[in-house]
Amino acid sequence: MRIVLAALLAGLPLLAQAEACIIHSQSNQLDVKLCQENRTIPQQLFRSGFCAPQLKGQKVDVSFAPQCPSSSYGVCRGAKVSGTPYQQDIHYYGVATDAAYLKPACEQQYKGVWMAR
Description:
By secondary structure, the protein is of the alpha+beta class.
């Protein structure tokens, strides 16, 4: 019984270890800030692929945090990544009126659930 309990307790830090990346991209006409919170993506793939956008003509800053800041105006929960079994929560910051475009994208393209804040 102790061995089973020890094995379960040893796995808890792995389950509780959330990770998020905050992405801020800027160009002459656009300033976008969002945060991707990992749900099921392997950690290395999340860091090297999902959190490494290549946006031509834009300055991109990426930082990592245990979770996304709570100040977002909307979240696409359970967003599925096209062609993969992976999910993430995408938090949006900045211009709240952008929700008119982001909500349909969340629900139709990412098959997620839009949550306004």
